[in-house]
Design goal:
The chain is an alpha+beta fold and 179 residues long. It has helices spanning 2-8, 22-33, 52-58, 88-105, 126-133, and strands at 44-49, 74-80, 109-114, 141-149. It has a single domain, classed as NADH Oxidase (3-Layer(aba) Sandwich). The protein binds flavin mononucleotide.
Length: 179
Amino acid sequence: MYLKMLQKRRSIRKYQDKEVSGEQIQALLQAALLSPSSRGQRPWQFVLIDQEEVLEELAEAKAGGSSFLAGAEIAIAVAADPEVSDVWVEDCSIAVTHIQMMAEDLGLGSCWIQIRRRQRQNGESSEDYVRKVLALPDRLRVLAVVALGYADEVKEAYELDELNYDKVHYNSYGQEIPN
Ligand SMILES: Cc1cc2nc3c(=O)[nH]c(=O)nc-3n(C[C@H](O)[C@H](O)[C@H](O)COP(=O)(O)O)c2cc1C
């Protein structure tokens, strides 16, 4: 059931030294390409990374929150052309979510690494750095890099009865849905 998968998905930052198969990679990319987008413009570009040296370089993309990328089996960078869509951030965010849920379905762990609006230790923009490492055209903006691999850490699934139901309103803000 999809809800069970949503409960089980957790951000995984430690990965086994175990190969992600070609079929799995294909499914991850297909999931990304199947994402809905505003006006069907599909402004995105996806870069699959499986070279250890490139993963290690990308691990230095941010001052914090990206170092574990060096231990990932693969990663997918998600970028877009803002000239193609003014809502590329939304479009790319959905694509990242598709990748993460596909990963969950394939028994893989994943973690979103935010690049847009982030900086490196030396103050350089994370986007500029990733653009350089991946030889992306200047016109492309970089939303995120998704780290992927078989999990080497155990994280508890979320319980449905522990969700923040106070974030949900009924017809008018502040009104609870009756039981
Ligand atoms: C927009 C966004 C940006 C995120 N950026 C990072 C990041 O740069 N590094 C990281 O380790 N985790 C990042 N995360 C993962 C969150 O920290 C994680 O989803 C959150 O703590 C909840 O944990 P869970 O994914 O296990 O439910 C990001 C998640 C989102 C949605």
